[in-house]
Amino acid sequence: MAYNLKEVIAEKPSRFTAGHRMCAGCGAPAVARMVLRALKPEDHAVIANATGCMEVSSFIYPYTAWTDSYIHTAFECAGATCSGVEAAYKSLKRQGKLPEDKETKFIAFGGDGGTYDIGLQSLSGAMERGHDMVYVCYDNGAYMNTGIQRSSATPRFADTTTSPAGSVIPGKMQSRKDLSEIMVSHHIPYVAQSIAVNNFKDLYEKAEKAIYTKGPAFLNVLAPCPRGWGYPTDMLMEINKLAVETCYWPLYEVVDGKYKITYKPAKKLPIEEFLKPQKRFKHMFKPGNEWMIEEFQQEVDKRWQDLLDLEAMTNKEN
Amino acid sequence: MSIRERLSGNEAAATAMKQINPDVVAAFPITPSTEIPQYFSTFVSNGSVDTEFVAVESEHSAMSACIGAEAAGARAMTATSANGLSLMWEMIYIASSLRLPIVMSLVNRAVSGPLNIHNDHSDAMGVRDSGWIMLFSENNQEAYDNLIMAHRIAEHKDVLLPLMICQDGFITSHSIENIELIEDEKVKEFVGSYHPAHYLLNDKEPMAIGPMDLQAFLFEHKYQQAEAMRNAKKVILEVAEEFEKMTGRKYGLFEEYRLEDAEIAVVCMNSTAGTTKDVVDELREKGIKAGMLKVRVFRPFPAEEIAKALSHLKAVAILDKSDSLNGVGGVLFEDVVSGMYTNGNNVKALSYVYGIGGRDTTAQDITSVYTDLEEVAKTGNVGNPYRYLGLRKE
Amino acid sequence: MIDKNTPAKDLTIGGNIYEAGNAREFKTGDWRSIRPVYISEKCKQCGLCFPVCPDDAIPVGKDQLRKDFNYDYCKGCGVCAKVCPFGAIEMKTEGED
Predict the structure, then answer these.
(1) Chain C residue closest in CA terms to B219
(2) Residue B374 pLDDT > 90, yes or no?
(3) In A17-150, which ranges are E strands?
(4) Do C20 and A64 touch (CB under 8 A)?
(5) The pairing of beta strand A190-195 with beta strand A252-255
(6) What is the mean pLDDT of chain A?
(7) Which tens digits make up the pLDDT trace of A157-176?
(8) Cα–Cα distance, B313 to B308 (Å, whole number)
(9) Chain C contacts of B207, Cβ < 8 Å?
(10) Which residue, among C3, C9, C12, C26, would best test binding to B if mutated, counting the most B CBs under 10 Å from its CB?
(11) Contacts of A196 in chain C (CB under 8 A)
(12) Residue ranges of the domains in chain C?
């Protein structure tokens, strides 16, 4: 059935409630909510959450913002924790200890710190073992929960509290890790990159595929942080749009190894458009630092071209 | 009729697990416990258990997966040693604070570094305050029996704490000894099925587990854990009584060996008790009133009961198979002595650190401890209580 | 109801919560310093505002129409006002008309 936003919102109640304590204007709650709306209303879900912004503000004793079952254990092990829950489900179901007619789905959420960095091994293990689960990374490009420290998802040159733009070192000097590609290399049935734009069609459809594809799936969703990125809270959706239109954050999916770019901007915007509104890149616009923008642009261009090539190579129908 | 077999400690543990038939086992290889998941995965491959075996990529993930599985409503088990337990450390605390009755075999080995694969108790001692029930086993039989009793204790509504069964790496884990196994059906009946009150997979009551627990609540939640640990003592004894009815094998909080009329005694855990019993017998033949106390239940620590059992002695030596590096003495020594003090027991006490990194502890070594004790008993002079056994000091 | 005066014996073990979604009882509206005001006459029910609300503070009825804001939860981030192409949401400082 074709996606209809109003119908989805009206017919499927939110499974991530109000009353959570994430910051005003945070990019993550809308992502979590839309991912969960992709669940069939009759299906139960168990959510595993890595320690991070989302966890510390959605389940503060005695309040939980999750209407499904939810488990948080630690920072680096949402993948393993979720795989344990899924293994229990498999075992109990096989033994007839759970109702036969009831489906439970398994979804892990982690920030980029808990996913690209400290939780990478746990995630990799869970994916390699083939658990029937979806891991959703809400990537805000730094350790925001502890106060904006650089992660391997932090883009090059970004000013963070552990890669401060100083007079000698102008921000983070290393490039951003491409986690989605690492997940593709696990040869799992479904990997996608998405973001909340327009009517959320891209995110909803990818979440639905990820959840209802048998086996492990990985969703990487850019989720801006107004505080960490340094833009006014009301700009969330513009930042998201610029991330896509500049090809900083390409939207694509890889189904059984076949790449499909799900959105190709008619006219790719220069990267300055994305960088300019964000204070973390402010120093790049100082006279004499033009090289930083140039190098940033070159990297975005290269990664976009690589993606186009991969699509051409793996997906002849496209 | 029980079944007579010859099994190593690891085989005994794996056999117990097979009979328990847990829903999920998540484990990672590490010497000397590796054989347990090895044997167990064979049971899985051959369909002799219903278990979902999760071959995780680390011990941290092993415990994380066990936590996930147990919280989901399944019985989850694992096995590890030394550095594996160290890597699990964070999750060990989380397992107990989330009140999940996971059962683990800990095959005791020295924690690095430098690297050493042989037996001592430094791994177990590193998690002594983690809120896990800890039972120690002298031999394969005890490792097996303790595992059969484990779920009944851990899952009891007044307890709900994870539990680890310790045995000595290589010394018992890899030594084949006679063992009496219980029939599968009897074990099944004794262990019973698992029906947690709340679990993640119950779609009729979705639940949340593992909150941010701030200043207004964490203290009370820790108190609840402490209460559960205190409750465990009674439950351990109740389960042991039922176990005795089934097997005729009697277990308490600790074992007293010729202690009743002893004047001097050694307190120890795990396989050293075997050697010590031999030494006690020899000394008794010479007319020396030697005895031994072997701690089975290390957590909860039966301080009052141990203090009482030792109260009539003239001198006691507490043997620790790990050094606390705290400048005072081993963990068991500190626990026993503080229990003695708070219960008004003033018996002279010595601390011996021994067997580190698999150093052999011979009957001769143990005999030398009793010789020291005789001297202390005679003179009343303890000297330096922080001593070493089998160390090349100078 | 559990609160900071609940004694240990009455707290759920491990900090478990068995009333999923009970965060709704926790109101975050008092975080707000600016307030979105819904001008229904200008609203075309285009559907751009309600999915972007981080706080689920824009109710949508079974009739698929958005309703007025739920100020119990709205933190005043202004994302909704910014995405509205029709000027149907105005941000006003709290306390002012």
Answers:
(1) C8
(2) yes
(3) 44-49, 59-60, 63-64, 69-72, 104-111, 134-139
(4) yes
(5) antiparallel
(6) 97
(7) 999 999 999 999 999 999 99
(8) 10
(9) 16-18, 20
(10) C12
(11) 51-52
(12) 8-93
How high is the pLDDT of residue C78? 98
- The amino acid at residue A230 is G
Task: Give, in order, the Cα–Cα distances in Å from A109 to each of A46, A263, B119.
Answer: 11, 24, 40
User: Domains in chain A: how many in total?
Assistant: 1
Q: Please indicate whether, in this complex, the C-beta atoms of B56 and A77 are within 8 angstroms of each other.
A: no
Q: How far apart are CA A17 and CA A15, in angstroms?
A: 6
Predicted pLDDT of residue A318:
63
Residue A175, domain extent: 5-314
CATH code for the domain of A310: 3.40.50.970
| Record: contact C20-A70, CB cut-off 8 A | yes
Under CATH, to which class is C8-93 assigned? alpha beta
Q: What was the pLDDT predicted at C95?
A: 83
What proportion of chain B, given as a percentage, has pLDDT over 90?
99
Say how far apart CA B52 and CA B22 lie, in whole Å.
8
Is C14 close to B98, i.e. CB distance below 8 A? Answer: yes
Give the separation between CA A225 and CA A149, rounded to whole angstroms: 13
Residue C97: what pLDDT?
Answer: 67
Q: Is the pTM of this model over 0.95?
A: yes
The arithmetic mean of pLDDT across residues C30-59, rounded, is 97
A73: chain B residues, CB-CB within 8 Å: 64, 67-68, 91, 94, 98, 210
Q: Residues near A16 by Cβ (< 8 Å), separated by ≥ 6?
A: A29, A32, A33, A36, A58, A65, A66, A67, C56
Domains of chain B by start residue, with CATH:
3-247 (3.40.50.970), 254-389 (3.40.50.920)
Distance CA B207, CA C17 (A): 6
pLDDT digits (tens, 9 = 90+) for A237-294: 999 999 999 999 999 999 999 999 999 999 999 999 999 999 999 999 999 999 999 9
Helix (H) or strand (E) run with residue A194 in it: strand A190-195
The backbone torsions φ and ψ at residue A139, rounded to the nearest 5 degrees and listed phi first, read -95, 110
Q: Does B208 touch chain C (CB under 8 A)?
A: yes
